[in-house]
Design brief:
alpha+beta, Nucleotidyltransferase, domain 5, 4 domains, 5-stranded mixed β-sheet, 5-stranded antiparallel β-sheet, 15 helices, 20 strands
């Protein structure tokens, strides 16, 4: 069975969209004789429970049975295999049956009106041979709808109005007239308890993450209620009631949210994916955009997917949460690439955490298990050269990690993505120039203070075993000087330490003390038995 998110992603690829539904899909797929006993049931004629019931078996798959969606999807794909043809429209129809259906819902997009008309006819013909009837057709183009019999169109389509309706497609509201996804949230009237909060927040279905920052506020409140150990039916505190009422009152804002369905992948060959990630005490988030450069036109930025999650109940440091957000960003990239029919030229990851970027770019230092596992996951899905720094004010994932009622940059992306690529390169070079200036001044002005030498007439503490030191190496680029621990010392005739052995991630190095900067005294570690 196809992944729901994958079907929605492919639905957004091309200009002309078509939607349909298989009528009573489960009842068109017969059960084999040996499995029919599983679906036995008793039947009382005319509802008379005093009469002797009759025993029946279902010969077709049943609505509500766990096996029905999988078995019906298999029958649908078998129909495609049995009717596979060699002409172009036939190939497209077969591919649509294989990748454009989620159970009984068909969502597809094509490049032109003519192709859409042929695809509608071809799909109906192929599926009718397998015993399936496609109905409730809807498209964002009136010409395509006019080519379909009135009885086969969606009931909401009017013959006398040019305006096209808004329909739910896989739980997402699609306005066919404006060809955009909208959001309609009408919370049920539930008691202000932990159970009521869970019921309302769980009813929000948002597979694309359009309203993820908004929903995060409610989930964060639910987490606070759980953290203080409230019972399921215990009333909320006054502050919690105030926060919850404010969230419910703001749900009407979501009706103004609109995200274009078409991401213009069929009219360009230059596609970049930009994924931003961030974390805060409330949650961590990642959001992905396509940067499209149509021929001869200005770049456009399209929202693809967003994810926002509350932080774990167990306290986790902000750097580790930032790392979890980076893992989420890498996962988004692999998901989109796996489900997309088009190739992406480049993926760029953005984070405002320099700690995370140093984790990813590290080549020598070993980390604890938590960090090492997540860095390994990130590097298995991406390359360290793809990761860049973005200021917090320009990071749209900041809205997702903190939660917000106003969905601004979360849906539109940062302003710098709308500028030409040369601007981004100039900006990157400027950042590198400033970093080089800082590194040069750090070496010349601050580092000598760590290496300060005193007169031999004044007794000073020698370098000791267990000291944590930074190894000065002018031949290495900035930020790559290794850090290690002193494991042995070599003294001169005067009893002063002249050189040491330092253990680093790649082995053991012998260095003179003039090339060391002491970061952490080993004597402190010995006092607390950490050495």
């Amino acid at each position: 069975m196809n992944d729901l998110l994958g079907v929605l992603i492919r639905f957004r690829q091309r200009k002309v969209a078509i939607v349909a539904d298989i009528e009573a899909m489960f009842h068109q797929v017969r059960m084999i004789d040996s499995d029919r006993d599983v679906l036995r049931f008793l039947w009382w004629e005319n509802g008379n429970l005093d009469a002797q019931p009759k025993e029946y078996r279902m010969c077709v798959h049943l609505f509500g049975a766990t096996s029905s969606p999988c078995c019906s999807s298999k029958a649908l794909k078998q129909t495609a295999d049995d009717n596979e043809k060699q002409n172009e429209v036939g190939k497209m129809a077969i591919e649509t049956i294989r990748t454009g259906f989620y159970v009984d819902d068909c969502l597809s997009s094509v490049e032109s009106i003519d192709v859409a008309k042929h695809l509608v006819q071809r799909l109906s013909g192929i599926l009718s041979e397998g015993g399936f009837r496609l109905t409730k057709w809807l498209s964002n183009n009136r010409d395509v709808l006019d080519s379909i019999d009135e009885s086969e169109r969606a009931p909401s389509v009017s013959l006398f109005l040019d305006e096209l309706p808004t329909e739910r497609t896989l739980g997402v509201c699609w306005d066919a007239g404006s060809d955009s996804f909208t959001f309609q949230l009408t919370p049920k009237d539930k008691p202000m308890t932990r159970r009521g909060l869970l019921s309302v927040t769980s009813s929000v279905f948002d597979p694309l993450g359009i309203a993820a920052p908004f929903v995060l506020l409610a989930r964060s409140l639910l987490q606070e209620v759980c953290r203080r150990g409230a019972d399921w039916d215990q009333p909320l505190t006054e502050d919690e009631k105030k926060t919850w009422t404010q969230w419910l009152d703001r749900t009407s804002i979501l009706s103004q949210v609109s995200v274009p369905r078409w991401v213009k992948l069929d009219i360009t060959t230059a596609v970049q994916m930009h994924i931003f990630c961030d974390a805060s005490e409330k949650g961590y988030a990642a959001v992905a955009y396509f940067r499209i450069e149509p021929d001869g036109k200005k770049p456009t930025v399209e929202f693809i997917i967003g994810r926002a999650r509350v932080t774990p109940l167990k306290l986790v440091t902000i750097p580790r949460l930032e790392l979890m957000a980076a893992v989420l960003a890498a996962t988004l990239d692999s998901t989109i690439r796996r489900e997309l029919s088009y190739s992406i030229n480049e993926t760029v990851y953005w984070s405002d955490s320099m700690i995370v970027l140093s984790y990813i770019r590290n080549e020598n230092r070993r980390y604890k298990t938590f960090v090492a596992n997540r860095v390994s996951k990130i590097l298995s899905e991406s390359s360290k050269h793809q990761w860049r720094h973005v200021p917090t004010k320009e990071n749209p994932a900041d809205e997702g990690s903190r939660g917000t009622y106003e969905l601004g940059k979360w849906l539109t992306g940062p302003d710098f993505l709308y500028k030409d690529e040369a601007y981004g390169k100039r900006r990157w070079r400027q950042v590198q120039y400033l970093a080089n200036i800082f590194w040069t001044r750090w070496k010349k002005e601050y580092l000598p203070l760590l290496q300060k030498r005193h007169k031999w007439t004044t007794p000073r503490q020698n370098v000791e075993v267990c000291d944590i030191v930074l190894l000065v190496d002018e031949t290495m680029p900035r930020g790559r000087w290794p850090m290690g621990k002193v494991i042995s010392v070599y003294k001169g005739k005067d009893g002063k330490v002249r050189s040491v052995d330092v253990k680093i991630a790649g082995g053991v190095l012998k260095r003179p003390i003039a090339k060391l900067c002491i970061i952490y005294r080993g004597s402190i570690a010995k006092d607390v038995n950490h050495c």
